[in-house]
Structure formats: structure tokens, C-alpha cells
Design goal:
The protein is of the alpha/beta class. It contains 16 helices and 14 strands. Helix 1 packs antiparallel against helix 3 and helix 3 packs parallel to helix 11. It is globular.
């Protein structure tokens, strides 16, 4: 191992972790504690005043989560990270750092449905307003930007369609307008794409998916790229103006290129409270050790499944960027040469009833609303997650009656295909 520049697989196992100094335990322990004893009153005062780093209370920081934070920051190439209870918790804290009532941000329209809800409905309660654009044409962003615009948000690989996005082109436009680019890197994971290398400033993750990887724990993360100048425009007062509750400290001045992560912790996590449970941090730390192995196998299996589906007489279309004739293939090769991810959609010729029957007849695949597990997962959006929408709305959301979404697991490819084959016979 090169000490100065360890590789990705080495970081996935070692970054942030040391044998426990007290017990010599090799694996990071689950620090199942709510609070931490102060050395004395001066020590307590220094911690509360941000003059010294250290543990106070598990809502704000925890030693098991701290190892996970360092690990995720290292994998993404960021300056610091903050772990949260879920991906949605991470998104809330990112926008809380940036937005004031009446502000807006620009977001890709192709997003995980839960994020569409969070941005379009819940954030409205804070008077934070989202403006949607189509990532297929990044130039459409520009007309939406005004002096109340605070950020641009995209998914590097969009859920559910599995579409790659031109991160560098979008970053260039955002930066030209003095805006940070926030990238949800959940679907790709840093094994496939490191968005900070393409111009992103902040990364968010649902650790619930590929990073944890085993379908057993919710979690989220914010990674600070350390690239954005929060003081330049005066548009980000949370970072660039004195904070009375911390004795007038200016976070960007005091913490420089990891001020965003600090603000998310000492203002967002402290006050909203979506903290990661230490047990979940432990499980996700165990999961992330095998991220490179799992992710490559997910991609290889998904490509095998997509190629096989394409030849099946009952399948109308397959939307997988890894296929050479896919319209998104060039972006996949540019941004994610190791593979096209595990999640994609395909359509059945016989529509709604066929989709429902197909899903019900799968045996190895689990029918559930999640992605990124070792197990193969399936959902028929029109009869489940999107059933409340009109037929027109379902089609616009990429959830028409014929659409099936797969999250291809890491089982034997021959077993995955055998299961799909027997279920298609019933469809
Ligand atoms: N981002 C993406 C791409 C997702 O798929 C999800 C959940 O499915 C989220 C964010 C939200 O994450 P969580 O469920 O951990 O809150």
C-alpha cells in the first residue's frame, strides 16, 4: 500500500479507522452512548464554543459515525463529511446551510421520487422553492437562475431510469453564475463516479443503498468538496456571517475548506436532529469495506441481464446506459467507464397486467421499494409507488403501465436470469 496515496479499495477498508486505543479492538466499536464526560468546566466551555473539537452529545457527533464520515469523505475525495439518519436527512441539512425563505434552487427533473416530493412539497413549508430543468439540455438551467437562486442539484446517475448526467457541463454553468453544484451520488457510489473531480462542490448520499449495501440500515451523508468560496457573494450568510450562539464565530473564516460540513453539523444536525444511530454507522462501515467488489459485480450482472432482456420476445424495450446502442451510452463511458450501475427499467409488451404478473411470479427477486441491496430487487411502479398518479403523470414520471424497475443484485448471473425467464413465461 502506498502510504501517501492509497487506492480506492484500501480506503474502503481503512480510511478513518484505527484499532481502538483503549481495548485494542481491531474493528471500530459501536459507541452506544448518548453523551461524553468533560475533563473539566473549561474543556466543556471550549467544546461548546467551537474552540476545540471533541464529543459532546450523540445528536451532534459520535465516534463510530466519525469513522464512517472520514471513510466516505476519503472515498469521495472531499475535505470532510457528516453522517445523517437518512439520505433525506442529508438533503435537508444541505439546503438549510444555503437557503433563506423566498430563495430558490435549480434541480434536475430526473430524480428519485422521494426527492421530488421533498423539494416540491416539504421544502415549500420553509418557502424554499425548486425550479426544475431537464438534464438532457443543461443550457435550459440558465433561464431559471435569478438573484434568489442559491444552488443547483442533480443526481450523477438518475433513479429510476439509470441515466448519466453531464456533470462537468452543469458545473460550468452553475459556477459561471456563482452557484455551488450539489450532486446526489447514491446510485453511482464513488466507486463508479467521483463528482468532485468533475466540478461538483457538495455530495449527498443515501448510505441506505450501495454504500451500506446489504439492505439493513438507513443512513445518509454530506461530503464537503472544500471547493466553493462561501464568502465571495454574500449570498450564504450562514457560512459568511458571525454566529451569535457561537460567540460571533464566522464559520467560513474559522473552518475554511470544511466550513460547509461544520455548518451542517453545528447548525443543521444540532437543531433538526436527524443523527445516524451508532449501530447503523457500524453496519454501514462493515458494508462499505466491500463496496468496490460489490459495485463491480452489480454492474457486470446488470449488463448481463440487460443484454439478455433485450433479446426476449415479451420485452418491448430496455433502458440501460451500459448497452452500446443506448442513447445515454456515451455519457456512461465518459463518466463511469467501470460500468453503468445496477438499477434500470425495461418495458413489457403486454403492459400493466403483464407487469404485475411478472413481479408476482419472481422468486429470487424481492418485490420491494429499495435499491442497492446485495439481493436482486424489483418493483412495478405503476401498481405500487406511482399508483396514485394519473396515467399521463405515470408516463411523465417514467412509471408507465409497462415499466418494471430492477436493482440487479450480486447473486450468480445464471440464477438471476433463470428467475426472470420463469417469471416472464407467466407475464
Ligand atoms: N437519493 C436517491 C437517489 C435515492 O434512491 C434515495 C432513496 O431511495 C434517497 C436519495 C433518499 O434516501 P433515504 O431513503 O436514505 O432517505
Amino acid at each position: 500500500m502506498s502510504k501517501d496515496n492509497p487506492g480506492f479499495a484500501t480506503l474502503a477498508i481503512h480510511a478513518g479507522a484505527q484499532p481502538d486505543p483503549t481495548t485494542k479492538a481491531r474493528i471500530t466499536p459501536i459507541y452506544q452512548t448518548t453523551a461524553y464526560v468533560f475533563d473539566n468546566s473549561d474543556h466543556a466551555a471550549a467544546l461548546f464554543g467551537l474552540q476545540q473539537f471533541g464529543n459532546i452529545y450523540t445528536r451532534i457527533m459520535n465516534p463510530t459515525s466519525a469513522v464512517l464520515e472520514e471513510r466516505v469523505a476519503a472515498l469521495e475525495g472531499g475535505t470532510a463529511a457528516l453522517a445523517t439518519a437518512s439520505g433525506h436527512g442529508a438533503q435537508l441539512l444541505v439546503f438549510h446551510n444555503l437557503m433563506r425563505p423566498g430563495d430558490n434552487f435549480i434541480s434536475a427533473r430526473r430524480l428519485y421520487g422521494g426527492s421530488i416530493n421533498q423539494f416540491g412539497n416539504a421544502f415549500k413549508n420553509f418557502d424554499w422553492n425548486v425550479r426544475w430543468f431537464d438534464t438532457a439540455d443543461p443550457s435550459t438551467m440558465e433561464a431559471l437562475i435569478d438573484d434568489k437562486t442559491k444552488a443547483v442539484f442533480i443526481e450523477s446517475l438518475a433513479n429510476p431510469g439509470g441515466t448519466f448526467v453531464d456533470i462537468a457541463a452543469i458545473a460550468e454553468i452553475a459556477h459561471r453564475h456563482g452557484l455551488p453544484l450539489i450532486v446526489d451520488n447514491t446510485m453511482a457510489s464513488p466507486y463508479l463516479i467521483r463528482p468532485l473531480e468533475h466540478g461538483a462542490d457538495i455530495i449527498v448520499h443515501s448510505l441506505t443503498k450501495f454504500i451500506g449495501g446489504h439492505g439493513n440500515s438507513m443512513g445518509g451523508a454530506i461530503v464537503d468538496g472544500g471547493t466553493f468560496d462561501w464568502s465571495k457573494s454574500g449570498k450564504y450568510p450562514m457560512l459568511s456571517e458571525p454566529r451569535a450562539e457561537y460567540g460571533g464565530v464566522v464559520l467560513h473564516q474559522a473552518f475554511g475548506n470544511f466550513a460547509f460540513a461544520i455548518a451542517a453539523r453545528v447548525l443543521g444536525l444540532r437543531d433538526f436532529g436527524p443523527s445516524l444511530a451508532p449501530m447503523n454507522a457500524f453496519l454501514i462501515l462493515t458494508g462499505v469495506e466491500t463496496l468496490p467488489l460489490r459495485m463491480q459485480r452489480h454492474c457486470d450482472n446488470a449488463l448481463g441481464v440487460a443484454k439478455w432482456l433485450k433479446t426476449h420476445p415479451k420485452v418491448a424495450w430496455v433502458n440501460y446506459s451500459g448497452l452500446e446502442d443506448d442513447p445515454n451510452h456515451a455519457l456512461q463511458v465518459k463518466y463511469s467507464p467501470k460500468g453503468a450501475g445496477s438499477v434500470f427499467t425495461f418495458g413489457l409488451k403486454d403492459g400493466y397486467e403483464a407487469g404485475k404478473n411478472f413481479v408476482e411470479n419472481l422468486k429470487l427477486f424481492s418485490h420491494l421499494a429499495n435499491i442497492g441491496d446485495t439481493r436482486s430487487l424489483v418493483i412495478h411502479p405503476a401498481s405500487t409507488t406511482h399508483r396514485q398518479l394519473s396515467p399521463e403523470q405515470q408516463i411523465a414520471a417514467g412509471a408507465g403501465p409497462d415499466v418494471v424497475r430492477l436493482s440487479v443484485g450480486i447473486e450468480d448471473l445464471s440464477d438471476i436470469i433463470a428467475d426472470l425467464e420463469q417469471a416472464l413465461e407467466h407475464a
